[in-house]
Every structure is written in C-alpha cells, then in structure tokens.
Amino acid sequence: MTATATAIDPVRLAVVQKQVDHISQQMGLIMTRTARSPIFSQSHDFTCFVASAGGDIIAQADGIPIHSGGGGFAVRATLQAFGDEMAEGDVYLLSDPYTAGGNHLPDWTMIRPVFVSGRLCGFTCNRAHQSDIGGGAAGTYNPEATEIFHEGIRLPVLRLVEAGKLRRDLFTLLLLNSRCPDLMEGDLSAMFGSTRIGAERVAAMLAEMRIDQGLAYFDALLRYGEARMRAEIAKLPNGTYLGEDGSDTDCFQKIDVPVRVALEIRDDALVFDFTGSSPQIRGFKNSSLANTYSAVYVAVATFFDHSLPRNEGLFRPVTIIAPEGTVVNARPPAPMTMNTVYPATDIIYACWKALAQAAPERGCAGWGKACYGLSSGRDTDGRFFVMYHWHGASGGGAVKGRDGFQSVGHMISLGGLTLPNVEGYEQSYPVHIHRQELRCDTAGAGEFRGGAGVDYICDVLVLTEHAVRSEGVGRPSGYGIGGGLDGASGLLDVDEIGKGSCPPPQYGIQRLGPSRIRVQSSAGGGWGDPFRRDPDAVLADVLDGIVSSEMALNAYGVVLTSDGCTVDHAQTSRRRLSAAGS
Amino acid sequence: MTTDAIQPPFRIGVDIGGTFTDIVVAGAAGRLLAHKAPSTPEDRTIGVLNAIAGAAQAMGRDTRDLLRETELLVHGSTVATNTLLEGKGARVGLLTTEGFRDSLEIRRGLRRDVWDHRSPFPPPLVPRRLRLGVTERIDAAGAVVTPLSRDSVLRAVEVFRAEGVEAIAICFLNSFRTPAHEHACRAIIQEVWPEVWVSCSGDIAPIMGEYERSATVVVNAYVGPRVAPYLRSLEERLSGLGLRHPLLIVQSNGGAANVAEVAHHPVQMVLSGPAAGVGAIRYFGRDTGSSDLVSIEVGGTSCDVTLMRDGVVQMTDQLDVEGHCIAIPSVEIHTIGAGGGTIGHVDAGGMLHAGPRGAGARPGPAAYGFGGIQPTVTDAQLVLGRLAPGPYAGGAIMLDRDKAAEAIERHLAQPLGLTLEQAAAGLIRLVDQNIQHAVERVSIERGYDIRDFTLIAAGGAGPLHGAAVGRALGCAAVYVPRLAGVFCAFGMCNTDVRIDRIRSWYQRLDDRQPDRLEAAFREVEQQARAALARQGFAEDAILLERGLALRYPGQQWPVTITCDDGLGVEQLRRSFEAAHQRLYGHFQQDGEIEALGLKVGARGHLPMAAPALAEPGPLRWPEPGGRRPVWIDDATGTVLTPIHDGRRLVPGDAVAGPAVIDEATTTLLVESGQRLRVTAAGNYLIEPAKKDGAV
Asked: Are residues A115 and A173 in the same domain?
C-alpha cells in the first residue's frame, strides 16, 4: 500500500495535527526550561519543529517568527549530505548559510532523524541562536564584518552523534570556538534533550498508527495546509503589485539598498519576484536563501488568518524568485549575521506593502526599526558580560482594529522577545538606568495609530565596547499604510561621562569609557486615514501625553476645548469636512 | 448517604461559579451534603445565602440553626477575578519612580501568541494620565540616590484627587531592596488624604522586577475597593444570621484567611474558588492511598489541571489572568478552554476543531434549547448516549437530543462526510486529547512521569472524560469523587489557613551566608506568625515551611527548594542540584548558584473532615438500573450499556465496563476492559486506566 492510497479519516487527521503540534510545543518547553543562556530562556531565540522524511516542516511551535520558514532548508541539506548513510541514533548539527541550509551563522540547527522499525520517518529539530560562536565581536554580531569569516565558525552538516555516540572531537571543537563554552555546552544539551524527547514521541505516535498510515497522515497535513492557503489567496484579486522597502546604509556608508518585490497573484498562487533589488552589500545585512524564504513566509503568514497551520504545505502555492548576488540571496563570502533582522524586516515590509494593495483591509503598517546596540565588557568583579539595550525597543505598526504596540521590539519577533526589567539589569550589569518612557508625538497617525517609541537613558559604569546597529535612525522606518502616516524615526546619542559627546556610527563598534547611552526609539506607522480616528481616542492620547494637542489638530483634525479636556465635536467635524473637501 | 445522618459541628464550603453557587456541608463522622443554587451576579451575597438556605432546608433545619452550629465557613468567590475581567474595578492612580511610568504599559513586550498579532493587549488597568512619576531613586544595592520629594508626591495626589482616583498603587524602582521610600510616600498620602486606599508594591510582592511588582500592586488596588466591601458585608450578614465564627476566604495559595487579611491583600483572591480544589485533592489522597495525584476539573467552559506530588500541591510564583500579571505565590492551575460548552467546528480546509470558542452558560449547548445552534461537547455526549435526554443539572435544564443531533449533523457530520455518531465521537476524541495534552504539559514542566499518578476526574463534566484521558496518559487509575460536581466547595471544607510571605534575597550562595539567611528567615517567619496569631492561631497550631528560590546566573526561572535540611551552603546546593536534575535533566558540577528570594509558608492547622470510611463490604456486582445504547470508545463503538444509579452503589461494590453511572452532580463513564470499584469513603476508582489499543 502506498502512502497516498490510505483513506484519510478527518477525525484522525485532526488528532494527528494536534499531536504533532503538541510534540513541537513540548520540545519548546524543554528548551526553555533547560537552556542556560538568557538568549534562549529570555529571548525565545529558538524554534522547534518536526519535519517529514522528505524535509518538509509539518509542525513547529514556540520561537520567533523569522525562524519559521527556513528549517526545511536545513533538513533537506542534511538529507543531501548524509541521506544514504543516515543511521538510527544519529544527530546532525549545521549553521552555514551558503552550504548547509543555515539562515545565518549564530543559529545552529540540530537535526535528529526519527527511525521506526529501521525506517526513516521524519526529523525532530531545533534551531537556536548561540551566545557566542567566535568571530570578530563577542556575542555573534560583528558590525564591522565584510566577509563571513569575520562572523564566527562555519558549520557544514556535521554528524555530531554517530549512531548514539557523541563525537567528542567535534564537540570540543565547537566549544573551543566560543567565548562562552559553558553557555554553549548547556544550550547544546538542551537541544539534545529537546530533540530526543520529540523523536521518542513522534516514533511512539507512528508506531501506534502503523508507519504507512502515519506517514500518509503527515502528507495529508501538508495538503491541508496547502488547501487552507490556496483558499485564502483565492480571495484576493489577480494582478501584479509592487512593494519596496530597504535601507540607507551598507553598514559603512550612506547608500541606497532597496529591496524590491513584484508580487503576482494568479488565482490561488503567489509569486514574489525580487528582481531589481540591491546588489549584495559590503556589510553584514545580506540575506541567505533560507532567510529570504523565511521572511516571505512571515509576511504571508502574518498577512492572512493566524489560524492557518504553520506547516510547509502552506507555502506550496508560494513561488519566490531571488536573484543570486543580490541582498536577498548573496554569494559567498558576503557577511550576513544581521540578516534575520535586516534585511529580513525590509523583505517583509516590501511583501506587506505589495499584499496591502491587493487587500487594504488586512494591510500592516511598519514597526519601527531598531536603533540600539549592545555593550560588552568586564564588570567590577572582572566578569565578562554582554548586554543588549533592549529597553530602547521600538514601537509596533498598526493594523485595522488595533493601535500599534508601544515599545515592543523587532517586527521579526512580533513580540516574542521578553524585554528585561530595569531592576534585573541593574542587578546583573554595571549600569544605572535613568529613564524608560514613551515618546510623545512619535506614533504614526492613523485611524489606528502606531505604537510610540521610547526614550531610554542608561549610564554604563565601566569600560565597554558598544556595538552599534542603528537601522532605525535617519529616515522613518515604521511606514504608514492605507492613508496612515509614518512613525517617527529614532535617535541614538552616546556621551563619555565627563568627556562629552561621542557620535556613534550607524553601524560599528565604539570603545568607550564610562558612558551615557540614550536611545530615542523609532515608532510604528498608522493604519488608515487619521481623520477617521475616533476623536475620543485622540483625546485619550492627548490626555495620556502620547499625542500633543497640536498634533491632534494637525494630523487628526481634532479640535479640543480650551481646557484641553474634551473634544469640540462641532469644530472637529467642520475641520475634518473642510479637509476632505479641499 | 442519608441527609438526616448529618450531625453538628458543621463545616461549610461555598463556591460561587458562573452559573451555580455550590455548597457542601460536612458534618460529624464525615457525612456530606451538596447543594446548588443559581448564582446572582448582580449581588453575589444573595446566591450565597440562597445556597445556605437550600442546604439547611435539605437537612431539615433553618438557616440560623445551621449557621449557629457551624464551626467553619469557608468561601471561594470569583468576585476579584470578575472585577478584573469585566473592567469594573476602582479608578487607580499609580506612582512610579520618575522616568519609569510606562513599565505597566510596555509589559515587557511579550505577546502570548505572537502569530496572532492583530489582537490588542488588554488596556492597562491604569491609563497613562494616572501613572505619575515621583522624584526619588534607590539604587540596585538599596542605597538612596535621590531622596523622596514630598512636593512631587503632593503634586501627584492633587492630580489624583482631581481625576476622581479611588485607590493609589505605589511601585518605586528597587523597592524590593528597601521599601523605605514607598512607605514614606504612603505616609505622606495618608496624612493628606486618609480615606484613599493605598498599597505599596514592596508589601504586596517584594520581588525583583518592576513590571511584575507594579502589575501586581495595581491589580491589588484595582480590585480592593470592590472586594473588601463585599466580603465585609457578607460576613456581617452571616453573623447576623447566627454564624459565630469568622468567615474565611480561599486565597490563590489554596489556603484560607480571614476577611481582614484578605481585604488588605485582595489580589490574593484571584484564584479563590479553583484553588480550593487543593483541599479536595489532599482529602482524596487519603481515600486513594496515593500521594501523587493530578486532577482535571472540567466544567462548562474550561478545564483546570492541578498536580500534587508527594502530598504537596505544586505552586507557582506568577499568574497570568487574561493578560494581567500577578506575582504572588499561588496554586499552579493550568487552565484550558475545554468543557461541556466547548464548540466544535470545521474550518475552511475541512479540519475538525474543538474550541477554543465556547457556548457559555447562555445560550449554552444546542441541547439546552436556549437558542444555541453550534454543536458542543455536551451535545456530543448526549448524541452518543453518554448523557440521557431530559432533566439535567438538578432539573434546571432539559436536554433535547434532537436539537443536539441537528447541530452536530449540520455543522460537523455533513461538512466532514461522517455519520452523526462518528462526528460526535470525533469531537469527544479531540477534547479528550486536549485535556490529555494539558496534563502532559503540566507534568513535563515539572519533570514528572505522569504514569506514576492517579488521575482525579472532577467537575460536572470531567468524569465522562476521565476514563479515556487516564488511558491515554497511562495513569495507574482514575478516581472520581462522588461529589465531583462540587469539587471546590468540597475542598473548602478541608482547607487550612495559609499565609505566604516572600522577601527578595539576591545573593550568591556562599559560606558567610547561613547566619544572615537564618536571621532573614526568622524575620519573615515572625511576620507570618503574627498574621496567623491575629487570626486566632496558637503557637503550636502553626506549621512553617521555608523555601529558597535559587538559580544559575543568567537563568530566567529560579527553582524553589524547601530548606528542610537547614541553611548550610552544601545542603542547599545538594537540594538545588537534585531539583535541577529532575526538572531539567542536568545540573552544573560546582556551578555558581545565586539566590533570588526566600519565602515562608505558614499554615494555621484546622482539623480536617475525616472521610467517613465504611467497613469494606463483600465484593458485590450490583445489577444496573437500566440499559441504553452508549458510544464507549473507538474500539467498542456503540453498545447496549448498563446504567447504574450512583445512589445505590455502596463501598465494596464493583461494576465492569462498559458502564455509565449517573450521580447527583455528574455522570461517569467506564470503558470496556475497565472496572469500577466504590472506595471505603464511597467514591469511585476506575482501574486499570491503561489498556492496549490504537490511538
């Protein structure tokens, strides 16, 4: 009996779907609870997934969205490298974006084949950002990199565990190449444990169902995802829609780095063609193919109904054209560690802008791009630390029905990043934080407005390296949509205490004495015409100090009474009408 | 169980739920009576008094008579939770350190379901215009950097007065180190505005983390002015009706406290109700003979999962109630949207789903005939013959099988191309799986093997799922309390008074520590003892338990260990490493360990109602009262199934599956190959839960 000949019972299909989802969630739970480094446990910078024997993701849970689409590349690369000799008890590890299906070097992907009765039935995997992998800067991000060799160790598909036996030599090699071998060892054991338990559960499920039947249901899940997506796409009008976003820096100089997409909607299929995007750039904001696919998947998955299953069947109707040598599909040895944020965000925004033309109601405004970096150095006890200035997170973009989230962080994590408490930072790091408050008049105006940026001031009390990545300074990045306005752009100021201003580069490393870092973060864009915003909502924002009365008047057409405490509805209507007529 | 056998002294548990207010009266010799009265959301006191009157009537007494003979009346109420969920709390002003008034709104950025980015956060309980900064600053070590400015406090108070604020919450940075500025600020406010409600974050939740602390103190201030008057008025009414003892209120920590204590920390009431299940679980531990229990309490809209290991109910330091963070020691209850009212639907891709939407109490399941047309779990149970058509829930509702069948036929069977029975069974299958996954999640998070546990199936709807869930989990046995439908009210009859006090203690573990740690513990214990003494407990009726939250630096979550073996560094390290090994599968040899906080759990011991144990009778296989076609499970399908009337089953009786037992507050299903026994205390044990078979 071939797999496809099995009759699919809809109840069992639902049970299998929930079971594989549950298994991937269990894997995530084990990761979160077992990992050592804050980047796992706090930032959820990892993803767990279950893949079919052919390398298609059939379930994934937890983790940050930008990891969502790229996992299949890693599994398929592993199949290509070791498909013929894969054995029960093997575990594979990889990271290289050019040769091994990786997205960028810090994300290590562990792949564990699942065997049932000697037959390869699928894979349980996780992809997790390591604390440090060597390279030119601590903490995996080297804004001065111009080649991938400056960014850390490259892992091809490694057979790290051979038939149940850990390759000690390889394992030691990995730890030797990290500045934080303790954290790495702890995190790798979390990855081992999580994939092992996942594999046991998948094997048990398949054994219970009989293997052929089980695999037929895996196929059916992918077909189900595909059917859901085709039904969603079919609701959109056919046509070609253009979207563009991008950057104004290659990390070294001001230069236009556009990401351009032509979206073609043809019945129940989508083609995203990135022809015309910028050539690859000197700095580390080049995308790998896996990361570009992932970014497109995030754009598509967030644009449609969130109840869509997140398996790779969903993307069967999606074709991506990413010309080689461009910023969305760079050739070696271009550096690319930053790609999961930039250009991933630019790619998503270009796709969102194109999609919004086909379905304005579902349009998503841009989330402000980040304008903070990280400080690293030794604390007064001589201990090495790496500290992200996450308190300076940017505001989110609006969609129809809700305002943007205030100071929420990167779009590519969609709020999956836990921002730290001030108190936790002051206990753990040699810092004193003076301020973390929302900025007035930064939120992009709209019928639904963007999220505000934040004003964050932090004294770093010791000598540090300040690795700067300020994509969100300069031109506004949280674009408005459907008549909504852009959110304000960000500012980054650095002073050496007692010495005065040290203007930071947009990307680069500053070596600083005790310093004061101030982030005025960028804000999210608005959705829809601001003159359609409920005047009482505008009043509430004025009373809350998110919007000034001048902005209420000019951007929203809302006139307040002289005490500033109520809306003058008659005047407001007149003003809004005359603006509409002019 | 005949009601005329219930003799004083009485212990009473009253639990207000969404639809019914449940009451259980426990008398001498463990005799029990349960009663339900409709809840009265407009004035909850009425439902409580009606429930008491109803129980009294069933006992052939009047209310005054019953209350006069009552030595303990414990009450659980969703009043705090409902105030929060319905947005009907007090107008709160929040004072923060200048420059940090937005922590509450930034809420650490975390979205629960990141993919659902179109749903807003719930609005912060305090709008920004009422979150004001005060000039003051204490640094990370607890030293004053900027003294508290009296003027800035007074200015803020003027704004609050003008804005009609009813309660003020104070949360200053690093107040977990020293509450001095918060207390000084409170003193200034009370001096100029004595009647306003004020609470300080360092008193309510002295933990590191300004977001969690401010969120908690804000909830406290938000619900306080609503909860406290309700509790005081209820206590007054009850004492007017003859109650001679103080009214006790169930807290989120599973223990009770008097009205004065709860009125001061009303945030502790958010789990009042479900947390009382703890008392029931402990009690049943004695009947099952197992100290490893996991309970599922399935009602109309949700399923609560609670786990007890070695006789200790699992606790957590932080709750999330509809997006509001509350950082206080609480019973760890994992809640999922799976209940009798859970709606089944088929999506655009032809996939069957159970939930997350539910039909609630109104219109409720289609079978209720209140206008619901969506198919629910209750409809499926009815179609499958597991529930009988006709009077339900004590006669308050008539179940209409035709309406149930129509809903399932139209919305599930037809779109899926299945028979009515297949579709109904499919919905049940998914809910069983959902409950199973919830239990697995709880046990995995705690690092336990669920096969070692006995599953308690409770709540009105739980005992129809117990057999299947227990089998899928591989539990040793499934236990069903006869009073499954009033599980929490029953638990309230078996509770202790409990006070939890915590204090931050952020230090590396080292040799110099034990003496200072001992002193710190003593101080906290002193506070806890004093709180219990105020509630009338003598020194020898107080049990104290020390806990220490430890972690490796950088970890997000600490592990709380009990300090039974003293405070020596080596003992603490060993306990921590053992717990870490269990939870995470590894520990770090000689790794640096840091402490985050210490906590003291103080219990004022109340004598528990002992189960009325019958002499074990001879094994009897009673005849069923009738038979009807019932769908049992995938392997068995629908068979003519014996139906037993629970009131006729006595200790020692056994029933072979498949069988259905109708009880006053619930219905049980026994699968093929399983056997049900009536325990010495008159409850039900289904064995073996596990059997071989396909998914």
From this structure: yes
